[in-house]
């Protein structure tokens, strides 16, 4: 249902009947780029991240699995996202992530792009943060190892992305 000034009016049931809730659809939303790494063919992790980030109020472009490094860099240059989120399930996130972040940081226009990586970053399992320091030193803003507690940490991180004026 559309209300005044192009607002979308949703109805929520709070027990006493449906009450209208105004959702501002006119305000532009920033875009977050979500991607798998070149060697990782897993998809559900990317869908989960997309939904999680959209719940935080961002538009998401999901590049999917097996994204070549060059394509990832070009998409970042073309789309100028608010943040890049990389996910790994196959355990090669550490080595793929190091390679990708170096390529991203070598591009002048991407040096300041907030970039995070998470998931299974090594093949031995239970790395317990062993790769995080090296990935941050290489240029990632944050690293989220494969654990349930990291979801809350990731949501908190997303909430801290500075909102910039969109043209």
Please explain how this structure is put together:
The protein has 5 helices and 7 strands; from the N terminus they run E-E-E-H-E-H-E-H-E-H-E-H. It is globular, with a radius of gyration of 18 Å. It is of the alpha/beta class and 167 residues long. The longest helix has 14 residues, at 93-106. The relative contact order is 0.14. Helix 4 links the parallel strand 6 (115-119) and strand 7 (142-145). The protein has helices at 44-55, 69-79, 93-106, 132-138, 149-159, and strands at residues 8-13, 18-23, 31-36, 59-62, 83-88, 115-119, 142-145. It has a 5-stranded parallel β-sheet, with helices on both faces. Strands 1-2 form a two-stranded antiparallel ribbon.
Amount of helix: 25-40%
Query: How would you classify the helix and strand content by structural class?
Result: alpha/beta
**Main beta sheet:** 5 strands, parallel
Neighbour order of strands in the largest sheet: 4-3-5-6-7
Q: What is the terminal-to-terminal distance?
A: 27 Å
Order of SSEs:
EEEHEHEHEHEH
State Rg: 18 Å
**What overall geometry do the principal axes of the alpha carbons give?**
globular
């Amino acid at each position: 249902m559309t209300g005044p000034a192009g607002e979308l009016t949703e109805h929520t049931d709070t027990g006493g009947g449906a009450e209208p809730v105004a959702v501002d659809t006119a305000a532009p939303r920033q875009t977050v780029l979500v991607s798998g790494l070149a060697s990782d063919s897993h998809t559900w992790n990317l869908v989960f991240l997309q939904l999680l980030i959209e719940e935080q109020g961002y538009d998401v472009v999901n590049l999917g699995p097996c994204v070549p490094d060059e394509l990832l860099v070009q998409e970042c240059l073309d789309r100028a996202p608010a943040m890049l989120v990389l996910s790994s399930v196959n355990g090669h996130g550490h080595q793929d992530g190091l390679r990708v972040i170096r390529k991203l940081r070598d591009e002048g226009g991407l040096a300041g792009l907030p970039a995070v990586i998470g998931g299974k970053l090594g093949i031995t399992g239970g790395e317990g943060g062993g790769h995080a320091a090296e990935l941050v030193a290489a240029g990632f803003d944050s690293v989220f190892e494969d654990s349930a507690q990291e979801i809350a940490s990731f949501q908190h991180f997303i909430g801290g992305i500075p909102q910039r004026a969109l043209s």
